[in-house]
Input
Amino acid sequence: MRTERQHSAAVERQKVWDREVTSELPGLLGQLLDSPVYGLTRDRPLPPEQHGIYLLIDDAGAPQYVGRVGLTDRSRRAGKRFSSFRTRVRGHAVARHNSGTYAYARTCEHFRSQGRPLATTRKENCDDPEFMEEFRRQCGLIRDMGVHVVAIDDNKVAAVFEIYAATVLGLPQSFAVS
Output
């Protein structure tokens, strides 16, 4: 059973959370949507070498995918620094069994929508020439997408904002907690 002291401490922590995180989310979404459009094609400037949240958009400007760039637990354990918007977006456009995360998900969805079987592992799927053909096609589509970014230095805020932005923008995606 909670004590009065525990309850008071939780209420105070909630106030700090609201002030430091929740109240920042709508403004960050505005900054993300209002940012310049970057990309990997010649007609767009490359994304900056910062970290925070990025939004992939299609040719019509419709949001497609939200991602986070920062110092993850996985990269920290590997002794790495944070990746940047530029490196992460480039990674989405490479068809390999260990990169092209969003393109891989789109490829799997494409196969499922056609009733085509998928292997049980990502490596097995990438060993299938037909899968790789579609995977490369999806990477090309992503390479042509525009990118909005908002720099966020606080990893806690970035992690929460990634989920907030995807939810508010109505994007059906899963969230890695690495």
